[in-house]
Each structure stands twice: as C-alpha cells, then as structure tokens.
Amino acid sequence: MMPEYGHALLCLALGVALLLSVYPLWGVARGDARMMASAGVFAWLLFICVAGAFFVLVHAFVVNDFTVAYVAGNSNTQLPVWYRVAATWGAHEGSLLLWVLLMSGWTLAVAVFSRRVPADIVARVLAVMGMVCAGFLAFILFTSGPFARTLPAFPVEGRDLNPLLQDPGLIFHPPLLYMGYVGFSVAFAFAIAALLSGRLDSAFTRFCPPVDAGGVGVPDAGHRARLGVGLLRAGLGRLVVLGPGGERLLYAVAGGHRPAALAGGHRTARRL
Description:
Layout (H helix, E strand, L loop, with lengths): L1 H29 L2 H30 L6 H6 L6 H6 L5 H22 L5 H25 L24 H30 L4 H31 L2 H6 L3 H13 L1 H14 L1
Helix pairs in contact: 1-2, 1-6, 2-5, 2-6, 5-6, 5-7, 6-7, 7-8, 8-10, 8-11
Protein name: Cytochrome c heme lyase subunit CcmF
Subcellular location: Cell inner membrane
Pfam families: Cytochrom_C_asm
C-alpha cells in the first residue's frame, strides 16, 4: 500500500499547486490580505506532500520493494543501502520527483524568508512557483509515474543501478546540481511577479542576489564532486568529466547577466 500512498500524495500535491497558482492571485486582484497570506499555507502543504511522496519512494528502494517497476529497474538486493537511496534519483522518474521536491523546498523558502517583502509581491511570486510545480507534477503523474506497479507478477531480484552513479561523489552530484538549477526558478518567479505588477520593486532587487548566488554556487559544488570522481577514475573518469563544461556554461549564461540588471534595479529603486 505504501506506493499507493505515494501516488496519492503526488495527486494531492498537484491539487495544492493548482490552488497556490490561482487563489493568492485572486486575493491580489481583490486586495484581500487573508487570501494573499494563504500562499504561505499552500507552500507548506505542497512541500509536505511532495516530501512525503519522495520518502515513500526512498522507502521502497531501502526495503527492495520490487513490486514497484521503478525500483525493480534501478536497484537490486546486493547494492549497499546508500546506493539504494541514491538510486531514488538514478533514472528519469525519480530525478523528476527530486526536481519537484527541491522546487517545493525553494517555494517554501520564499514563503518563510520573505516576510519583509510586500504581501502582494510574495503572493504573485508563490503563485508563479506554484504554476511551475503544477506543470512538473502533472508531467510526472501523466507520463512518468515513479510508483507504477509490476503486479501481479514481480521479479525477485532487480536490475542494477547505473554504474556511473555507483560512486560516493556522484551520490551528491545530482541533488546539488538540481538545487542550484531549481533555485533560478525563484528569480524567474520574481521577474514574472514584477511584470504582473507593472513595477520593478526594490524587494525584487534585494531578494534576488542571494538566490542567484545559490543558483550559481550550489551547482558548482556538485560539479566539483563530479570532477573528483573523474580524477579518481583514469579511464571512465575522463568521460565523466566531459559533461560539466556545457552545463556550467548554461547556468553561467543564465545568471551572469543578472548583477548588472540588479545594480540598475537598485539605482531605479533608490530614485523612486
């Protein structure tokens, strides 16, 4: 029954994300402070639901529940327990679930640490992040469900985890990388909120620099872990370290233009 609970939590998370996408914006339109404040409650509920579903999947890997097709395809009884936990994000379905978990975590972080930001801006930002979360949750539920069963027949032994991921450095590489990439969604949400409100508020320029620093710094830590694996492995490691260059260029381009834009925003805010 545990996988069914996980699937139900994802369905509930999708409903909460849709409410987060609509209800606070309705409150902004009506000028209702209580409706705008509900965005924080929805952010908490969204994170709890997604985290619950994620830990249900982790539990399935730890106990070798091969009635779950995703577990049977990416783990086996001979794997050490830490690699079974890492196998949770070792393939497509689980990595998407990790992505949504981190995105819901960033959404909750905005709700918790933006108490000095005007309520209407916070409501717009959280609504935009709720829309993004809802899109990913819908994609998971309709095309990439991690809790699909192998029943009525199920294997007594699973397939192995991808050998490239069977290294301590690569256990931490995907979560760190995703944490930084997903962090850019906060800056995106603030930008969309500024467009929706028709103004570049000083709160936007104050809140985004630490987010951008995390968005660039955290993936870099993940790439350093990946680079360490490459240095330890002579043959295969050379192939492992070829990837980060293009990925680092991606988020460097995405975040590199922002300091000048934010500096201009600070000057504009001071003039206003």
